UniProtKB/TrEMBL annotation:
InterPro entries: Acyl_CoA_acyltransferase, GNAT_dom, N-acetyltransferase. Residues 17-164 form the N-acetyltransferase domain. It comes from the Bacteria. This is GNAT family N-acetyltransferase. PANTHER family: GNAT FAMILY, PUTATIVE (AFU_ORTHOLOGUE AFUA_3G00765)-RELATED-RELATED (PTHR43792), RIBOSOMAL-PROTEIN-ALANINE ACETYLTRANSFERASE (PTHR43792:SF9). SUPFAM superfamilies: Acyl-CoA N-acyltransferases (Nat) (SSF55729).
Length: 167
C-alpha cells in the first residue's frame, strides 16, 4: 500500500530540531546508529546499503525514516520514524540517538514532531513503540511523550500513545 503520494520526502521543522531525509554525506556520522532488520552497520558502505533499503521502504509506503537535525549546527543527532503497521493506519515509532547527544532533549523534540506528523498528516489511528526492559532512558522518553505500557514479553515492553481526550 502506498501511503506517501508525495513527490518529495517530508521535511518537518521544529523550534530546535528538524526531521529530514538522510543524505549520503550524513552516513559517516551515523554508522553507530545505522541498523536494518536489527543488524548494525560496521562500515560506511554497509550504512549506505542499509539506507538504500530504508529509502526503498519509504517509496513502497512501508515506513518513513528521518534524520533528527539540530537546527543550529545542521548536524544529525539521531534518527526516528515509523517502521511497521502503516498499511493498517497504525505506526510503530522507533528512534535511536547518537550517544554524544544523550540527555539533551533532542529525542523528545524529534519524536514530538514525528508524533504530530503521524497523527495530523498520516492520520494514524494508533501509534506504538517497543523497547527493551533494560532501556530505562527509552522508557522514560516514551512516558514523557504520553505513551503507556500495554504489554510485556521476555525482555521487551510495548507502549501505546495515549492522546488527551478530545483529540
Amino acid at each position: 500500500m502506498k501511503l506517501f503520494q508525495h513527490d518529495y520526502f517530508p521535511h518537518i521543522t521544529g523550534d530546535r530540531v528538524s526531521l529530514r531525509q538522510i543524505k549520503d554525506a550524513d552516513l559517516d556520522d551515523l554508522i553507530e546508529i545505522s541498523f536494518y532488520d536489527a543488524i548494525q552497520a560496521k562500515t560506511v558502505q554497509q550504512a549506505a546499503e542499509m539506507q538504500s533499503k530504508i529509502n526503498q521502504d519509504y517509496l513502497d509506503g512501508n515506513s518513513i525514516h528521518w534524520g533528527i537535525v539540530d537546527n543550529i549546527t545542521d548536524k544529525i543527532v539521531g534518527t526516528c520514524g515509523y517502521y511497521r503497521g502503516l498499511d493498517k493506519g497504525e505506526g510503530e515509532l522507533g528512534c535511536v540517538l547518537l550517544s554524544k547527544y544523550y540527555g539533551k532533549g533532542y529525542m523528545t523534540d524529534g519524536m514530538s514532531l514525528a508524533i504530530d506528523f503521524g497523527l495530523n498528516t498520516l492520520g494514524l489511528k494508533r501509534i506504538w513503540a517497543a523497547t527493551g526492559q533494560q532501556n530505562v532512558p527509552a522508557r522514560k522518553l516514551l512516558e514523557r511523550l504520553n505513551f503507556v505500557q500495554i504489554a510485556e514479553a521476555d525482555d521487551e515492553i510495548e507502549y501505546e500513545l495515549r492522546q488527551a481526550s478530545g483529540k
